[in-house]
Write a structure and sequence with these properties.
It is built from 13 helices and 9 strands. It is α/β, with parallel strands linked by helices and 332 residues long. The protein has a single domain, classed as Luciferase-like domain (TIM Barrel, Alpha-Beta Barrel), CATH 3.20.20. Strand 3, helix 3 and strand 4 form a beta-alpha-beta unit. The longest helix is centred in the middle third of the chain and has 16 residues. The chain is globular, with a radius of gyration of 19 Å.
Length: 332
């Protein structure tokens, strides 16, 4: 039986409303609440802290906290402090689903795998109360690198965020969980295979690692309304997806060339109008009953947590209610 997470894109609503939706998600039976940690978007640490203070059971985490624009020392103190506030409900998604946003800052993105691996290693050492005099390829720390307070837990689940076969394999090798993009759903099995390779390399079993597939969803009582709601997300983010993932439903990056040009020019409505019906297949779209088979497909691929993100639907609050009342009970 899978667990379910909900992932809130920051532009869906004002910050206070997002917190209210997280409270509703907890009430409706969601197990996790995730916030993408994207550059120049609402601050994920603020959002997760607000949700922690407003909820009681749901686990709270970020997706794509990257070890380039944020130092692992800051990441460690953030999750340790939030874990204390939430009484042990914090998880962390560390890594990148794309290098492009970091490059916006003029930061060189070279060996993402080594940098993510080393960041996870030093954060774990800090949480255990160790003095982390670390000499790695990416990080060189002195003997003054240690937490000045005792964490609520000395082990917080660290999920690796990655893309590409080698990076995904690394998340399976060292992560407590992995957060691959499952966009489109047909590409999910391609994401799980290298994660399994990494898990095997670590000497663990697949059930030891939570594979939390991040999918785009748009759910409504009206299938047409659900389709219209997803077009904006596909127009903006489609060109960031991997070629192999797009190929899973007969698309390629070339199909997004003109759409990307419109987005880069700020002509978002024009970009949205260029989204074709086949592109809608990048997401899980439809009524509650229509999306259940797609979720079953994700579970069959090896996903142990279904992370529902994207626009959610034309009315996100209603979508949370529909999912909680009609979809989650089917799987529970």
């Amino acid at each position: 039986m899978p667990t379910f997470g909900i992932r809130f894109l920051d532009h869906l609503a004002p910050a206070k409303t997002l917190v209210e939706w997280a409270v509703l998600a907890e009430k409706k039976g969601f197990d996790f609440c995730w916030f993408p940690h994207d550059i120049f978007c609402k601050n994920t640490w603020v959002m997760t802290t607000a949700v922690a203070m407003a909820t009681n059971k749901i686990r709270i985490g970020s997706v794509g906290t990257n070890p380039y624009s944020i130092d692992p020392s800051e990441i460690a103190t953030y999750i340790a402090t939030l874990d204390e506030l939430s009484k042990g409900r914090v998880v962390l998604g560390l890594g990148l689903h794309t290098e492009k946003m970091v490059q916006w800052l003029g930061i060189e993105v070279a060996d993402m795998i080594t940098r993510t691996r080393e960041a996870i290693e030093v954060i774990r050492k800090l949480l255990k109360g160790e003095i982390v005099a670390y000499r790695g390829k990416e990080f060189q720390w002195t003997d003054q690198c240690y937490l000045r307070f005792k964490p609520y837990r000395d082990k917080i689940p660290l999920y690796g965020c990655g893309f590409g076969r080698e990076y995904l394999a690394m998340t399976g090798e060292i992560g407590d969980g992995s957060l691959p993009m499952a966009t489109p759903p047909e590409s999910a099995k391609n994401m799980v295979a290298p994660i399994y390779e990494g898990i095997k390399k670590s000497g663990r079993k697949p059930e030891d690692v939570d594979i939390a597939g991040c999918a785009w969803f748009s759910v409504s009582e009206s299938a047409t309304a659900a389709e219209d709601s997803i077009r904006k997300i596909i127009a903006y983010f489609g060109s960031y997806l991997e070629e192999k993932s797009l190929n899973a439903i007969g698309l390629s990056l070339k199909d997004f060339t003109v759409i990307k040009q419109e987005v880069m020019a700020g002509r978002y409505a024009d970009a949205e109008a260029l989204v074709t019906d086949p592109m809608l297949g990048l997401a899980v779209v439809g009524t509650p009953q229509q999306v259940i088979p797609k979720i079953e497909q994700l579970v069959a691929s090896g996903m142990t947590q279904i992370v529902i993100g994207g626009p959610l639907g034309p009315d996100p609050k209603k979508t949370i209610e529909l999912l909680g009342d009609q979809v989650l009970p089917y799987f529970h």
